[in-house]
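Field reference: "sequence" (input) and "structure" (output). Example, D-2-hydroxyacid dehydrogenase:
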Amino acid sequence: MHNPAPVVVVLHGGTPPAEMTRIQPHAELRYATADQLPEALPGADVLFVWDFRTEALPRAWPAADQLTWIHTATAGVDHLLTPDVLDSAVTITNSRGVFDQPMAEYVLACVLTFAKDLHTTLRQQDRLHWQHRVTERIAGRSALIIGTGPIGRAIAAQLTAAGMHVTAAGRSARDDDPDFGTVHASADLPSYIGEHDYIVLAAPLTEQTTGLLDAAVLSRCAPTARIINVGRGELVVEADLIDALRTSTIAGAALDVFDTEPLPTDSPLWQLPNVLVSPHMSGDTTGWIDELLDLFLANLRSYRHGQTLHNTVNKQRGYVSGTEH
């Protein structure tokens, strides 16, 4: 069965990528900002969410009179799981697979930056200041990856190849995971987080993971530990993290995601010398837009032929069905 060209609404933040024209031969395309979404949704079959921080769905939802599929150009889907969407029969798919390796490379880069003190080197270079220092090895150091989905597994492969000892935290404990070996239960995080040199956050944002690293958990970290967050800002209680950094409860943090984005200019995180701030870019590499569109167009072909969609999200769990976290 081959269905007629569906109506696809692209929700964007102001300027949709020029590459979106690749969709035009396969669908009737409508562009909409958050304010325009209620007017664009009537009669639409598909919503392609390019604006990953959008909060437009609740207000626009009554206009979604024909919608059967929502696709997001992100791995995380927390921004889409509104009560109306959860109660509906609308299928959600994500862009799992596009960001795995780039984000793993970013995490390795952060580990090396801390170990080799590269952030200090750059600051000293800016000041024309020569200061010899001794740095650390990463081989033999331990990393705890919180989140056992595809991104977490790609990170594990990268860090393991660099000689690090990697374990994970997920929904359920197990000792025979093919990529991590040992997976601890996230609920028991305070009991083992102190054993690790690097704590990497790569979990989806769910009710269970929101605020996972708070003052109580951070207080159990080793004072030499560094935290790397490539998941969602809300996985960490930001005020507690700032306190932990200021008081040397932990040694540093590399943050690619934040509670508020862009990060406000008055945030203390900008000025702390043991913090690396990047503007939510860990997964964005040359050619990423075309990769995202390749994935969407493959699913669009399946949609038009009545076939099962790839990367279908379990809406109750908040991630792709069959993926353990």
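Residues 29 and 71 are 14 Å apart (CA to CA).
The first helix runs from residue 37 to 40.
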